[in-house]
Automatic annotation (TrEMBL):
It comes from Nakamurella endophytica. Belongs to the peptidase M20 family. One of its GO terms (molecular function) is metal ion binding. InterPro entries: Amidase_Cbmase, Bact_exopeptidase_dim_dom, Peptidase_M20. Zn(2+) 1 binds at residues 84, 95, 195. Its cofactor is Zn(2+). This is Zn-dependent hydrolase. PANTHER family: ALLANTOATE AMIDOHYDROLASE, ALLANTOATE DEIMINASE-RELATED. Keywords: Hydrolase, Metal-binding, Zinc. Binds 2 Zn(2+) ions per subunit. Allantoate binds at residues 222, 281, 294. SUPFAM superfamilies: Bacterial exopeptidase dimerisation domain, Zn-dependent exopeptidases.
Amino acid sequence: MTFSASPADGSRFASTWADLAGIGRDRLRGGYSRHLFDDGDLQLREWFRAEAGRRGLDVETDRNGNLWAWWGTPGPDTVAAGSHLDSVPGGGAFDGPLGVVSALLAVDELRARGVRPRRPFAVVSFAEEEGGRFGVPCLGSKLMTGAVDPDHVRRLRDTDEIGLADAARRAGIDPTRMGPDRERLAQLATFVELHVEQGRLLQAADPAAQVAVGSEIVAHGRWRLTVTGEGNHAGTTRPEDRHDPMIPAAAAVLAARRVLADHPGAVATIGRLHPVPGGTNVIASSVQCWLDARWGSAEQTATLVDEIVAAVRAEAELEGCTLVMTREAMSDRVDFDPGLSVNLSERLGAPIIPTGAGHDAGVLSAHLPAAMLFVRNPSGVSHAPGEHAETADCIAGVQRLTDVLADLLA
Ligand SMILES: [Zn+2]
């Protein structure tokens, strides 16, 4: 195993990283808001093409908007590495782009090490991994693998009521061709996704380790709870006359925290509330709450959600409101290929850790051996502007990814 944090590595990482820094900044929230087919996303696609072109890689946008940069001719037995370039609203710089940048730099490093791939290699950037614009996480990989209905996807709209199909056309992608890509899937032999760690499990597993290998992704899903009451005047409506949907919505927020005490390892969050009409002197007529819940298996997560919804329903009845729940997304627990993960862990001398975050590697792992490498993030902050990884750790990530790819491509 080699490790070199040479100035050349550092400056190459820094310059590639610097080119991304100005794209898709969110001046209101801080950090980045990079969403499918928005201006930032289109600039990121140009950046990807330029970086691939600089390395002599052929770039292709597949029918689902995922970007592929090929070293060698596309074909069977392909090894792919990458991640995504989009972000959550007001997200950090590392979640996603670190994996794409690392895969591109791994091409440089493989060449520097004199590796001549015996199989095709592709750097991939999957579309709308965060579901930040149209609500479906891992959209590009789910479309490719057939895990989501393309008709449903074509009907998705963003919060400005812009349809995904129209947004796709704007980006030069024909929405009628979106859907399962069996040919591409059949070409892929292995996928490795490097990602910034999004918690503090790596630190807990081994405070000295810069990189870890992923073992599993816990089950996770999103639900939309719509509470409807009666819009009214905040000053003149007596307490006994109110049907305020914000009360059951508040119960949802509190229940999402309360149930965790009984279920170690579970997490549930209401991170988004939308009162309608949303006036300070107005009792809302309805409130939409988005619940994110994650725990062990799909059944366990469903138990968690049932408990939260029961609490909201009880409060809605007391308040004279109605509740409608819609499941927006659900992914069952994913165990990464155990042979591959153990191999990588031994090869790299890296600890193995689970994650509570969804990833394209999790979607692909239902179809081919997939693995993840996590670069440490000691604060654990992610999906927020404060997300950070030290450059030395990022470079170690590139080196470890290169080690893995050198073995896979040999
Ligand atoms: Zn990510």
